[in-house]
Amino acid sequence: MARPYAVAIELKDADRAVLLEWVRRRKTAQALALRARIVLACAEPGATNTAVAAALGLSLMTVSKWRRRFAQYGLSGLDDAPRSGAPRAILDEQVEAVITTTLESVPDGATHWSTRLLATHLGLSQTAVSRIWRAFALAPHRTEGFKLSTDPHFVDKVRDIVGLYLHPPERALVLCVDEKPSIQAQSDTAPAIPMRPGQLERHTYDYIRHGTTDLFAALDVQAGTVIAEVHRRHRSVEFRHFLQTVERATPAELDLHLVLDNASTHKSPIIQRWLLRHPRVHLHFTPTSSSWINLVECWFSTLTARQLRRGRFRSTRALENAIRSYVAINNTNPKPFIWTKTADEILQSVAEFCIRTSDSHH
Fold first, then answer.
1. HEC letters along 141-171
2. DSSP class of residue 264?
3. Which phi and psi (to 5°) does residue 185 adopt?
4. Which residues, in sequence order, are bridge partners of residue 227?
């Protein structure tokens, strides 16, 4: 059998840049990235098909194929060739009609298109509309909320708090503090039906209320441990009591940097007087409408998902005991939430979002 002929490869700077981008970009298809690596290796001086195949762990025929394809067609030759099969049943004009109709109009008597409504409107099948929506990541039935902070000191506060997360001060603890108010102790009006194969666990839609409790929590950013306390109310008096608990539970030789929101209970005169008597405690307030920057909110989310949402409690005492139990388990095997984005990345993302939402109204 004749050995595959090694076609000479001479890469232009522009083609080399594109190939390198395909190799390095995370979202590039694996097959395309492999073909780019083959071409780059074949472009090296004196590179033979045999040497490239051995270096990349590929067959000689694979290297030869993509080497010839690139030499003949350039970058476009690295794409998959059209496959045989039934011709397309949906034209580009129909795809465009689905997209533009979905994005630029709403049906009569409804707030958004459904696959059935749009299929009837355009004379397509429901399956075709569904496939086009999936291909272009369109989901008219779903919405998400957003809130932009109007805090005049937004930039300074973001830099301050993110700086604490990424570069905590020496001989200091960074604690994220917040309250989860009005956690409701409730029980079903009838016994739950347990889960079994083919059937989810079932609870009654109505429930009996047994009172509420308020959770105060301080998350140690680096350790992942939590100092928690439950109270029946969440006034400044209770918050001061919690600050005293935090102050006693932490090493006296360390400064405390507390990240917390702008609630009035955190800024009242009683708290200001307490802070004057405890100079090692420093408060860092988050920007308004920016609870996402307070890491204790992540811990509240896991607490809700694992303990509270499906929990049934016949008294506030039972609810508080369940919370204390979860805190104890968390502190036995803590898992810190790792903050990764820099302040510049966050501010750039916010700026791009503002530009995008502003342009959408023109």
1. CCCCCCCCCCCCCHHHHHHHHHHHHHCCCCC
2. G
3. -90, 120
4. 218
How distant, in Å, are the alpha carbons of 77, 78, 84, 120 from that of 81? 8, 9, 10, 35
pLDDT of residue 127: 94
Rg (CA), the chain: 30
Q: What CATH number has the domain spanning 154-192+203-345?
A: 3.30.420.10
* 3-state secondary structure labels for all residues of 214-230: EEEEEEECCCCCEEEEE
Structure-token match 């935090």, residue found? 246
**Cα–Cα distance measured from residue 267 to residue 269, given in angstroms and rounded to the nearest whole number:** 7
Tell which residue, 339, 337, 309, 305, has the closest CA to residue 226.
Answer: 337
Distances (CA, A) of 26 to 20, 40, 58, 338: 12, 18, 22, 22
Give the CA distances from residue 207 to residues 202, 215, 278, 318, in Å, rounded to whole numbers and listed in that order.
13, 22, 45, 16
Return the H-helix or E-strand segment holding 102. helix 92-104
Asked whether 161 and 293 are in contact (CB, 8 A), the reply is: yes
Per-residue model confidence (pLDDT) at position 359: 62
Confidence (pLDDT) at 5:
57
Q: What is the pLDDT of residue 331?
A: 95
Q: Are 217 and 300 in contact, with CB atoms under 8 Å apart?
A: yes
**Per-residue confidence (pLDDT) for residue 182, from 0 to 100:** 93
List, run by run, the mean pLDDT of 10-residue segments along the chain (362 residues). 65 88 84 90 88 90 90 86 76 92 93 94 94 94 88 93 94 95 92 91 91 95 94 92 95 94 93 95 94 94 93 93 95 92 92 77 48
Question: Structure tokens of 306?
Answer: 């694992």
pTM for the structure as a whole: 0.69
